[in-house]
Amino acid sequence: SKMMKYILFSSLEPSQLPVLKELTTNEICRVWAATSTYIRRQLLQKKAVNIGIGTFAVLPAHATLAEGEVLPLERPVFNLSRTLRKFYKLKCPKTKIPEETPTVQLDFEEIAERIHFRGEIVEQCIHETLLFFAGTLQDGKEVEFSFR
């Protein structure tokens, strides 16, 4: 399965990240910025997006105002895959994405077009970044992954 390629039993070797080695930090950031834009567009269309290690979605929520008025809101969530949570023994808040939510995968070609990259470079860059992320989990390091 897609998830299994992010199950690492040992530290990463640099040879496992050939594309990341070739790209500049700026280029990697551009790939992820375009990926964030893609994810955001899908979320606005009420779709969930599976990125390989988990799924982004928007869930209904509500805020109670001072006057006791209830304001309906939507809150973005990221659901790390159960396989990864178990394997890396991670404690994550459980969020249930409703079954009826349509889920899409990343469209590498569409993301690549926005930044004038080749689709396979974008796909490999995302894959290797997620591998690197899994590698830091395997090494028990703190990792911060931020999306706009």
TrEMBL record:
Its transmembrane ranges are none
Q: Which residues form a coiled coil?
A: none
- Give every CCDC81 HU domain span: 12-91, 102-148
Q: Which GO terms describe its cellular component?
A: microtubule organizing center
Look up the domain of life of the source.
Answer: Eukaryota
Identify the PANTHER family for this entry.
Answer: COILED-COIL DOMAIN-CONTAINING PROTEIN 81
Q: What is this protein called?
A: CCD81 protein
Q: What is the lineage of its organism?
A: Eukaryota, Metazoa, Chordata, Craniata, Vertebrata
